[in-house]
Amino acid sequence: MSARPSTTSKKTMTLNLTDAEMAVLDQLSADRDMTKTAILRQALRLYQVIDDRLRAGEKLFFGDDLDKEKKELVVL
Which residues neighbour 29 within 8 Å (Cβ) at sequence distance 6 or greater? Predict the structure, then answer.
């Protein structure tokens, strides 16, 4: 029986962030008690879902329960 290659192999990369971007990442990490890597992975998954839906012709809205106002989010 041969060993199957791991489907969860990981790659390492260097990421250059501005001070403001790093501060946001630090704050999200602290607020959610998650590692910075976990925050970035979650952000990538979210971006992928949004991108897939936009490519399928869907739109993304944010709504306010108080005034029932909806605003479309435009992603470039």
Answer: 35, 36, 38, 39
